[in-house]
């Protein structure tokens, strides 16, 4: 599970473009395919860069891979970049070449490396079936793999421009020696090259990212064996300089190298030490420009925030060979414009992925309103969740909020995190990812503590964001921050103090959130759509209906044909089957204190369950069916409900009750 945002709403993206266009950006960016990659919750990004590697583990390839795994974990990397020459000696023979597994999948096995890999092609890759490496079939074999000739990764604070450099090099055409290059797709060559240069130039000009990185296989500045690539020096370098690119990163020379000139901010970085190295050839180079030349194997790391960029080079033992950093405090015109766009367009919802089981099914539990240090039957509910969780082999847990009573957490070091979460939900079956939203009680403490990555470091199950998307293939979950919708907390907070940091100005926050949810729902192609929030929409419980959500959120849920709305807030277990729409409203707010004793009258046609006491819910879903069940503190089933969908139709439904 990681935030691999392979598909961000193109609607949002065009929104950004339109806004930026209004602010004088005219030509919209190039033909280059774009891959959005969300930054970490705190806005930073980190990644590794590796080049010239695929040799079935030989020549220290495996040792480098091993150290990448260790450093990758330490830096909590978001992705990996390959600078090409992915498979030696002659690329892949086809999509079924076993070398794909032998040199890639079976080598980079560390957990931290199971992230998206963004790869360009090197000259050796062009000596095989070049289209094999570009094929989506490889992505099916190993979902980390993503290789295109030229493309853009938009990681918010940094934009990375991948350039296909091999076709620039004259000698591969004029004097290929014994090698046969697969030039399919790049002819006529002059046309291909001039288009790339134009696309890269205009994409760089349109970019409002704080940092810009260009990645290619071939060298521009190097003291290594191959030396400088004169075609890139004359054709690509002027574009990099003109557009204030921060880093040019390449492979090709089998070494690690850092060159920069005192009168230009552009850094030239070679990371080509993925396997065979020790060439023993180094040309003399100005010592004021040569920051590192290492003739052996290794890789590099990059860590970026809004203001800092830090790189490091590592050898096969993980020793740091060289470190360098720079900062940009100064907010340029572009920077201001970017923040304007960000305010106006609002951050698109962060996306997380969760793979279903191999049989295509998905099981999870839902609990809400729980954190009371085990009191009020919290521990009993936790115990039963552990048993049912094991029986249904759950994939994850959802919390509908009010995670910590009475007033959220006081900070990231609040022992309530241990006492109400880590030390309560101890069953092995509950050691899965927890996806949490915030409730109104959470907003009464240090709200940012619950969102902090520090908690994830203390207990890796913890994942709490205000609003986000979980893409579980057959089901897409839309987690919505509902507390800021409720007028009373603002106009009549009584003795409570709410932490509204990050939520003001409120009107803008809410309208952005509704827009984001609506457009994310519209582009969703998942078979099932489930929206999760803390507050009720339809409920017969103590708090009852949340009018603000009925007015603002419910129309969006209806118009996008969601299947279920799941909430907490009322401390009960409840199932309302809306007679106005196909939406099922599930309340799972029985994680601890319950027995409120007040229930409003509700149409018996719609109210399938109201249980005033403690408990939780389970879901079992496939492409074609969903089964939900409600359990009390003793694990007794209070209510079961099922629905099936024909595989090809979202409308034909059959209902069964028990
Ligand atoms: C952002 O979070 C990561 C942990 O995922 C951490 O390593 C990094 O130091 C944080 N950066 C800042 C600027 O807080
Ligand atoms: C593997 O790395 C070690 C340490 O850098 C080096 O001494 C050795 O020559 C390398 N082996 C190969 C085959 O390159
Ligand atoms: C714990 O659960 C039992 C069984 O439902 C119930 O009788 C009892 O009142 C609950 N205790 C509390 C403190 O809610
Ligand atoms: C939580 O418990 C773990 C071990 O169970 C301990 O290492 C950690 O310091 C505790 N944290 C707090 C904030 O109590």
Automatic annotation (TrEMBL):
<feature type="domain" description="Calcineurin-like phosphoesterase">
    <location>
        <begin position="363"/>
        <end position="572"/>
    </location>
</feature>
<dbReference type="InterPro" id="IPR051558">
    <property type="entry name" value="Metallophosphoesterase_PAP"/>
</dbReference>
<protein>
    <recommendedName>
        <fullName>acid phosphatase</fullName>
        <ecNumber>3.1.3.2</ecNumber>
    </recommendedName>
</protein>
<dbReference type="InterPro" id="IPR024927">
    <property type="entry name" value="Acid_PPase"/>
</dbReference>
<feature type="signal peptide">
    <location>
        <begin position="1"/>
        <end position="30"/>
    </location>
</feature>
<keyword id="KW-0964">Secreted</keyword>
<dbReference type="GO" id="GO:0046872">
    <property type="term" value="F:metal ion binding"/>
</dbReference>
<keyword id="KW-0325">Glycoprotein</keyword>
<keyword id="KW-0862">Zinc</keyword>
<dbReference type="InterPro" id="IPR004843">
    <property type="entry name" value="Calcineurin-like_PHP"/>
</dbReference>
<dbReference type="GO" id="GO:0003993">
    <property type="term" value="F:acid phosphatase activity"/>
</dbReference>
<dbReference type="GO" id="GO:0005576">
    <property type="term" value="C:extracellular region"/>
</dbReference>
<dbReference type="Pfam" id="PF00149">
    <property type="entry name" value="Metallophos"/>
</dbReference>
<feature type="domain" description="Calcineurin-like phosphoesterase">
    <location>
        <begin position="46"/>
        <end position="255"/>
    </location>
</feature>
<dbReference type="InterPro" id="IPR029052">
    <property type="entry name" value="Metallo-depent_PP-like"/>
</dbReference>
<comment type="similarity">
    <text>Belongs to the metallophosphoesterase superfamily. Purple acid phosphatase family.</text>
</comment>
<keyword id="KW-0479">Metal-binding</keyword>
<keyword id="KW-0378">Hydrolase</keyword>
<keyword id="KW-0732">Signal</keyword>
């Amino acid at each position: 599970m990681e935030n691999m945002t392979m598909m961000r709403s193109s609607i949002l993206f065009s929104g950004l473009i339109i806004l930026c266009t209004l602010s004088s950006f005219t030509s919209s960016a190039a033909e280059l395919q774009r891959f959005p990659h969300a930054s970490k919750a705190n806005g930073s990004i980190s990644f590794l860069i590796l080049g010239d590697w695929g040799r079935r583990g030989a020549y220290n390839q495996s040792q480098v891979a091993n150290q990448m795994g260790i450093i990758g974990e330490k830096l909590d990397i978001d992705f990996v970049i390959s600078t090409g020459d992915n498979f030696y000696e002659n690329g892949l023979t086809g999509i079924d070449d076993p070398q794909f597994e032998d040199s890639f999948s079976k080598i980079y096995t560390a957990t931290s490396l199971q992230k998206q890999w963004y790869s360009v092609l090197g000259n050796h890759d062009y000596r095989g079936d070049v289209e094999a490496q570009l094929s989506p079939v490889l992505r099916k074999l190993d979902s980390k793999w993503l290789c295109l000739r030229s493309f853009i990764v938009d990681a918010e604070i940094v934009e990375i421009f991948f350039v296909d450099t091999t076709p620039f090099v004259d000698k591969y055409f004029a004097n290929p020696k014994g090698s046969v290059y697969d030039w399919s797709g790049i002819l006529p060559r002059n046309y291909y090259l001039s288009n790339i240069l134009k696309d890269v130039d205009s994409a760089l000009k349109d970019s409002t990212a704080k940092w810009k990185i260009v990645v290619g296989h071939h060298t521009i500045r190097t003291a290594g064996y191959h030396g400088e690539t004169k075609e890139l020096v004359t054709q690509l370098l002027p574009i990099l300089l003109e557009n204030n690119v921060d880093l040019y990163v390449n492979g090709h020379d089998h070494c690690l190298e850092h060159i920069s000139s005192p009168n230009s901010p552009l850094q030239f970085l070679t990371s080509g030490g993925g396997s065979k190295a020790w060439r023993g050839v180094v040309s003399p180079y100005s010592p004021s420009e040569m920051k590192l030349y290492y003739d052996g194997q290794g890789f590099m790391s990059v860590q970026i925030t809004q203001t800092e960029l830090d790189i490091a080079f590592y050898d096969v033992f993980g020793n740091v060979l060289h470190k360098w950093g720079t900062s940009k405090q100064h907010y340029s015109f572009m920077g201001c414009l970017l923040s304007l766009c960000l305010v106006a367009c609002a951050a698109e919802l962060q996306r997380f992925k969760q793979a279903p089981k191999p049989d295509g099914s998905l099981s999870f539990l839902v609990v809400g309103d729980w954190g009371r240090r085990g009191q009020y039957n919290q521990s009993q509910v936790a115990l039963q969740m552990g048993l049912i969780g094991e029986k249904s082999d759950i994939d994850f847990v959802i919390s509908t909020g009010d995670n910590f009573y009475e007033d959220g957490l006081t900070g990231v070091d609040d022992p309530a995190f241990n006492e109400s979460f880590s030390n309560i939900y101890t069953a092995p079956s509950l050691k899965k990812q927890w996806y949490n939203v915030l409730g109104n009680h959470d907003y009464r403490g240090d709200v940012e503590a619950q969102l902090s990555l520090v908690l994830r470091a203390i207990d890796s199950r913890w994942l709490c964001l205000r609003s986000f998307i979980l893409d579980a293939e057959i089901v897409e979950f839309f987690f919505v921050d509902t507390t800021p919708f409720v007028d009373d907390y603002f106009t009549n907070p009584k003795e409570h103090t709410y932490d509204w940091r990050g939520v003001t100005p409120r009107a803008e926050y809410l309208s952005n959130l509704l827009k984001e949810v609506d457009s994310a729902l519209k582009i969703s192609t998942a078979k099932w759509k489930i929206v999760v929030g803390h507050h009720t929409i339809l409920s017969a419980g103590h708090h009852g209906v949340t009018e603000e959500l009925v007015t603002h959120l419910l129309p969006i849920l209806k118009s996008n044909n969601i299947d279920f709305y799941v909430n907490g807030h009322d401390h009960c277990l409840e199932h309302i089957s809306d007679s106005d729409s196909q939406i099922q409203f599930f309340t799972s707010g029985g994680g601890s204190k319950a027995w409120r004793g007040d229930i409003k009258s509700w149409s018996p046609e719609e109210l399938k369950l109201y249980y005033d006491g403690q408990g939780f819910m389970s879901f079992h879903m496939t492409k074609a069916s969903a089964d939900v069940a409600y359990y009390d503190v003793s694990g007794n089933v209070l209510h079961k409900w099922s629905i099936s969908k024909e595989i090809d139709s979202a409308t034909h439904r059959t209902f069964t009750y028990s």
